[in-house]
Amino acid sequence: MKNYEYRDLFLKHLALSNTSSDKTKDSYFRDITRFLDFVDAKSIFDVNKEDVFAYTQHLRSGSITRGIISNRTFARNMACLRSFYRFLIDQKLIDENPFILYKNPKVTKKLPEYLIFDDVITLLDSFNLKDPVDVRNRLITEIIYACGLRVSECTNLKYSDFDFQEECLSVMGKGKKYRYVPFYPRIKQLVKLYMNTYYHAINDKEEYLIVNQKGKKISSRFIQDMLKKQGIKAGLTMNVHPHMLRHSFATHLLNNGADLRSVQELLGHSLLSTTQIYTHLSKEHLKTIVENYHPRKK
C-alpha cells in the first residue's frame, strides 16, 4: 500500500468508530496529507525523529501552510499524527510512534465569546417576519440560541426531530449521539410560520428542515455568513457567529442558576471539564454584580 492509502484506511476507521465529527475528520485529512506531501517518496514506516523535527520546523515557520499557525492548530496537527501512527501500531504495521515524544506547546484556553441577553433580543428583533427569507433566518438564529446547537446540528435538523407536544428537540450531536433539548413556546410558533410562509413555497420534499431558496439543505457556511451580516445590520459591535449563540445559551443558563451537569447534558459535552469553561464567564458576571451593587465597592 502507498502512504496515502494508509491515510484513507485511518480515516475510514475514524468514520466507522463514530468518535469524530465531520469537521475533525476534514482537519485530520488535511493534516495527514500535508505530512505525507512533506515526506514525499519516503515510506511512512521509515519516518524517524529527524524527519519529525524537520516537519515541525517547517510547520511552525508557515512555509508549508498559508501562514504562521497558532499553538492550538500546531497542537491539533501533532495530536492527529500521533493518532495516525498509534493506529498503525494497533494494526501491527509498525512498532514505534515517531511523534510520541514530541510535546505540544502550551495552549491557553480562550474564554468563549457570548452575547448579553439584551444583544440577543436586539439580534432577534432585527429580522423582518413579514419577509419569508427573514423568517427562515430568524428560525435558524433562535433555534441555535434556544437549544444551544452546533451549526452542523442546525443544518441537519428535520421536522420529525421536533416533539411539539412535549416542546422537546431530538438532536444528533458528535459521534452520532442523540440528546434531548427542551425549547420554549416561541420556537413552535416560528417553525409553524416558517413552514407556512417559506418551506412549503420552496420545496416541501427536502429531508432537512432548513433549506435555501433552491429548496436544498442549508450549509454551515451560509449560516456563518448570514449571522455575521445580521449582527452588523442589528448594530452589534461583536462579530456574531453560530458558536457565539451556543456560548450565550450556556452562559445565560449558568448566570440564571442552572447547574453545570444539566448544562453539560444540554450542550452534548461528553466531559464535564469541557463545560466548566463557562463557569469562568459566570464568575465574571458575578464579579460585575458585586462591583456594581455592593455598597463597599462604591
Give a description of the structure.
- With 298 residues, the chain is mostly helical.
- It has 13 helices and 3 strands.
- It has helices at residues 3-17, 22-39, 49-61, 71-90, 117-125, 132-147, 151-155, 185-202, 220-233, 242-255, 260-267, 272-275, 277-293; strands at 162-163, 168-172, 178-182.
- It has a 3-stranded antiparallel β-sheet, with no helix packed on it.
- A hairpin with a 5-residue loop joins strand 2 (168-172) and strand 3 (178-182).
- The radius of gyration is 23 Å and the shape is globular.
Number of distinct helices = 13
Q: How many E-type strands?
A: 3
Helix content: 55-70%
Order of helices and strands: HHHHHHHEEEHHHHHH
For the termini, the CA-CA separation is 72 Å
Biggest sheet record: 3 strands, antiparallel
The proportion of residues in beta strands is: under 5%
What is the CATH first-level class name of the largest domain?
A: Mainly Alpha
Instruction: Please tell me the overall pLDDT.
Output: 87
CATH superfamily of the largest domain: Intergrase catalytic core
Overall geometric form: globular
Strand order, biggest sheet? 1-2-3
Radius of gyration: 23 Å
> What structural category do the secondary elements indicate?
mainly alpha
Into how many domains do the coordinates divide? 2
CATH topology of the largest domain, what is it called?
hpI Integrase, Chain A
Low-confidence stretches: none
By CATH, the architecture of the largest domain is named Orthogonal Bundle
Short descriptors:
298 residues, mainly alpha, DNA polymerase, domain 1, hpI Integrase, Chain A, 2 domains, three-stranded antiparallel sheet, 13 helices, 3 strands
